[in-house]
Amino acid sequence: MPLGRSGTVAALGTAQTLSWASTYYLPAILAAPMARELGVSMPTVFAAFSVALVVSALFGPRSGAAIDRWGGRPVLMTTNVVFALGLAALASAQGPVGLFAAWIVIGIGMGGGLYEAAFATLVRLYGRDSRNSITGITLIAGFASTVGWPLSTWLEAAFGWREACIAWAGLHLVLGLPLNALLPRPPAQRVPSANEPGPAAGTPAQQPSWRAAVVLSFVFAATWFISTAMAAHLPRLLQAAGATLATAVVVGALIGPSQVGARLLEFGLLRKVHPLLSARIASALHPLGVLALALFGAPAAAVFGVLHGAGNGILTIAKGTLPLVVFGPQGYGHRQGWLMLPARVAQALAPWLFGLALDRWGAGALALSAAVGTLAFLALFMLQTTWSTDVPSPQTARP
Predict the structure, then answer these.
(1) SS3 358
(2) What number of CA atoms fall less than 13 Å from residue 329's CA on the CB side?
(3) CB count in 10 Å sphere of residue 235
(4) Helix (H, G, I), strand (E, B) or coil at 89
(5) Could you tell me which of 50, 52, 66, 108 has the C-alpha nearest to residue 84?
(6) Which SUPFAM superfamilies match (predicted)?
(7) DSSP code of 176?
(8) At residue 397, does pLDDT exceed 50?
(9) More confident residue, 155 or 209
(10) Is 150 helix (H, G, I), strand (E, B) or coil?
(11) Domains in the chain, ordered, with CATH?
(12) How far apart are CA 341 and CA 323, in angstroms?
């Protein structure tokens, strides 16, 4: 029997948790033992991971177009197999060549198996009525690091990093693949007839789409740069700002709950607010956190962590909802792949670039992230909030 909407969100969210935990969150735990055994430096391991992110950016548009055409079910099932192959190759790597080759395979899977693909899957199923479903999967997959880091740590300590990779590969085949196989098949796409009336005035089709695409691409790249830079350097950054190591660890632990709490707020109160308005609010939170830290020093570290985490949590949802409300559901997956391509590249470069800034300026590097966040906030005012959302979804379209 086909899954209902709640079951679809639960299955997709659980599969996304697995995909994020076994790829994006893997190097944080396994990079050190990998480097020791393979005889390479830690930066080399993270360079291979950065290559995977660039590869994922290149494959994103193609994967999105495939979801537009066939739905998410076959694409996501394929990525489970690709993830399993890449993780198995990583487990068998004997040197830098094998390391980079394995991460390239994993990067191919990331291009069609992470949030952008999940969002496109939901839009293909539910059209413009996908906002709450998008929020739902981010609520579930928001615990990917909470699940992934302890499990990877335990597997590495008990069996070794190679066996940990094999275990994650097996989970893709015995858990992720069946979960994605349960996803409903999408309704047939409708091609409007030539004598059908065009879109009403004010709908996305009549807006300057090139400008909107440039703005969204920049906003997504800027916010992912900040998110990845903070994920890589937050403890060191807070210590440079005067916080103790213990405080930095506590603040880091606050970010996950802050993200989930903000997503619950989006699911509840902010669901009645235009997605563009909630994105503007969210993009301002990191710069406000930096301002609090600059004014009050280390005692405001927790405030900074909560504001940064909350903004990041809502912006993850905005990456799915803003393209939908601006452009509508038609061709969503392919467009989403192109919109997120600069963000993936920025994500790959963020740890290195922000690390250089941190080495040079110490806590002053926060001026860089605050400036980038402020530019994203201002860029969102180049988009309108008056677009009509009266775009037919696949279910309401006439046969």
Answers:
(1) helix
(2) 28
(3) 15
(4) helix
(5) 108
(6) MFS general substrate transporter
(7) I
(8) no
(9) 155
(10) helix
(11) 5-181 (1.20.1250.20), 204-382 (1.20.1250.20)
(12) 14
* SS3 call for 93: coil
Q: For residue 46, give Cα distances in angstroms to 61, 144, 342, 354.
A: 24, 19, 19, 14
Which pLDDT value is given to residue 2? Answer: 63
- Give helix then strand counts, H and E, for the chain: 16, 0
Please write the tens of the pLDDT for every residue from 38-92: 999 888 888 898 899 889 888 888 888 888 888 889 999 999 999 999 999 999 9
More confident residue, 335 or 91: 91
Residue 303 CB neighbours (<10 A): 17
- Residues 348/54, Cβ–Cβ less than 8 Å: yes
Tokens representing 325?
A: 């409300």
Helix extents (H) in 271-300: 275-296
Tokens (6 digits) for 97:
């060549």
**SS3 category, 217:** helix
Residue whose tokens read 């909470």: 146
- Could you give the C-alpha distances from 255 to 236, 349, 358, 396, in angstroms and in order? 15, 22, 20, 39
List of residues 6+ apart from 318 with CB closer than 8 A: 275, 278, 279, 282
